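Justification of computing resources. Each target in the renewal requires a structure prediction run like the one illustrated here; the chain below, 138 residues long, is used simply to show the kind of job we budget for.
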Amino acid sequence: MNRRSLGRGRLVIGAGAVLALVGCLFPWGQTAGVGLPPESTGAFDGFGILVFVAAIGLLALIALPYAAGDQPIGLDRPLAFVIVGAVGVIGFLLKLIQILGAGLLALPDKGLGLWVAAVGLVIVIWGLAEMAAEHPRA
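Resulting C-alpha cells:
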C-alpha cells in the first residue's frame, strides 16, 4: 500500500483544480441585456472545455500514485502536472479571447464562472511553484 504524504504542492493544485471545476458550472460571459433572451456562454462552449479537462486531469494525476499501489508511476512527475496545467491556462486564455471577440461581457455579475475558474487556475499555478520547490520524492 502506498502511504506517501500528499505534499503541499499537490494539495494546493488539487484545491485549485476543484475550484476551476466549480467555475465550469457557472456562465462565463453574457451580453449586456441587448436582445431577448441575452446570449451567454459557458465553459463547455469552445475552448473553455480545456479548462474542465485539465482540472480533471490534474485531479487524476494527484490520485494516480494512490490508485497504483506500491508500483512507481512514470507520470508522477512535476513535468506532467506542468503540461496539464498549461493546457488549462491556454484553454482559459483562448476562451477569454473568444468571449471578448464575441462582444460578451465577462464582468463578475455576468460571467461568474470565468472569474472562479481564473482564481482556480492561479491557485494551480501557485501549487506548481510549490511542487517545484519541494524536494524530490523517494
